[in-house]
């Protein structure tokens, strides 16, 4: 039960983070088709979690030497690239239209997603021990 609960809390954190990014960053938009705004954000969050679970570790391993040379700052570039991967997956499923219009909005989006996810995970951490 704890695995499902942790996944749902993570889904909540990423959904809130994506909503914050779409609200604050010009150049990142999410337009739902059939599921409404809530369903579109939850679907985008699920895709984001899947991409960070499967694709991001492979990319981080391959680009590890560059990340070491830049003292970890290259992780921002990798996180921004993951937003483009999420955009491609989300749009291919036909759930809605997720667009990241340029690299600078992707960098800002990656930073905001990291900060908001960390805050929400911090606030929900006591619930993960249930």
UniProtKB/TrEMBL annotation:
Signal peptide positions (record): none
Chain segments annotated as transmembrane: 7-26, 38-56, 68-90, 102-124
InterPro entries: Phage_holin_4_2 (IPR007165)
Pfam families (UniProt xref): Phage_holin_4_2
The entry's keywords: Membrane, Transmembrane, Transmembrane helix
UniProt superkingdom: Bacteria
Protein name as catalogued: Phage holin family protein
Species per Swiss-Prot/TrEMBL record: Corynebacterium phocae
Lineage: Bacteria, Bacillati, Actinomycetota, Actinomycetes, Mycobacteriales
């Amino acid at each position: 039960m704890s695995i499902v609960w942790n996944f749902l809390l993570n889904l909540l954190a990423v959904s809130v983070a994506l909503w914050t990014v779409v609200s604050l960053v010009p150049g990142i938009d999410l337009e739902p088709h059939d599921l409404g705004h809530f369903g579109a954000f939850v679907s985008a969050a699920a895709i984001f979690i899947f991409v960070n679970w499967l694709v991001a570790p492979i990319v981080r391993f391959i680009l590890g030497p560059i990340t070491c040379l830049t003292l970890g700052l290259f992780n921002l570039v990798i996180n921004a690239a993951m937003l483009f991967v999420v955009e491609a997956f989300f749009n291919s499923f036909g759930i809605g239209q997720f667009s990241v219009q340029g690299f600078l909005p992707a960098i800002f989006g990656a930073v905001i997603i990291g900060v908001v996810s960390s805050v929400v995970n911090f606030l929900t951490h006591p619930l993960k021990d249930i």
